[in-house]
Amino acid sequence: MSAVTVDVFDLENKKCGQINLNADVFKQDVRMDIMSELVRAGQANKRQGSHNVKTRAEVRGGGAKPFRQKGTGRARQGSSRSPLLRAGGVIHGPKPRKYSIKLGSKVKKLGIRSTLSYLLSKKSFIVVEGMVSKEGKTKDLNQKLQKFSSKSLLVDHDKNILFSRACRNLPHYQLLEVCGLNVYDLLKYNHVICTRSAVEKIHEIYGKGA
Q1: In 59-157, alpha helices (H)
Q2: Predicted pLDDT at 1
């Protein structure tokens, strides 16, 4: 399968060259099932699972019988911490647990390839020469990014300190390094803006034989 040639732009959205995208990464079959599984796993792995309620045995107090066994007209009770009473324990309540889902590296790479191929087919993948901010000004960077899309994921090989600081307060843009790519973030935004060096790193990590 031959490589795909796309235009490369500067941050002023002006064409400044071209780049060949590896077909092994950007021209693969779109596997919605794999992409869905990776999104579900990614969201599950973010859950802390620290929810907890106290059972009857864990609620403090309740050692004495609340009222006598017979003669009151009420149902018999052995403890004021019974789940049937106010301030009692909870039956079958949530306890701490792990929600994490483990997937193999081959599945993860297949999901990234499938997602990048999908984005390219939808013309939602944009390549820029670099991501550099001379002064680290959020307002200036926002004006430049608006020329591409109103909501984008920015992908670079290494984070530039000033550029990272400039986009930190932009609510509709997120900056990621190539090593942090995931299906959820790739699909979350309208466009993915990737630097030339990041594309080369993606070829290295997700290309055939990687």
Answers
A1: 105-121, 138-145
A2: 67
Q: How many CA atoms lie within 13 A of 100 on its CB side?
A: 6
Of all residues in the chain, the percent with pLDDT exceeding 70 is 99
Q: Judging by beta carbons within 10 Å of its beta carbon (0-12, 13-18, 19+), is residue 34 exposed, middle or buried?
A: buried
Contact (CB, 8 A) for 93 and 55: yes
- Using CA atoms, how far apart are residues 182 and 151, in angstroms rounded to an integer? 17
Report the Cα–Cα distance between both ends of the chain, in Å, rounded: 17
**Do the Cβ atoms of 198 and 178 come closer than 8 Å?**
yes
Q: Cβ distance 173 to 32 under 8 Å?
A: no
3-state secondary structure of 147: coil
pLDDT digits (tens, 9 = 90+) for 176-190: 999 999 999 999 999
- 125 in helix, strand or coil? strand
Phi–psi pair at 20, nearest 5 degrees: -95, 125
Residue 7 belongs to what H/E stretch?
strand 4-9
What distances in angstroms separate CA 98 from CA 41, 45, 48, 158, one per listed residue? Answer: 12, 8, 7, 32
pLDDT under 70 in the chain at which residues? 1, 209-210
pLDDT in tens, 72-104: 999 999 999 999 999 999 999 999 999 999 999
Tell me the β-bridge partners of 4.
21
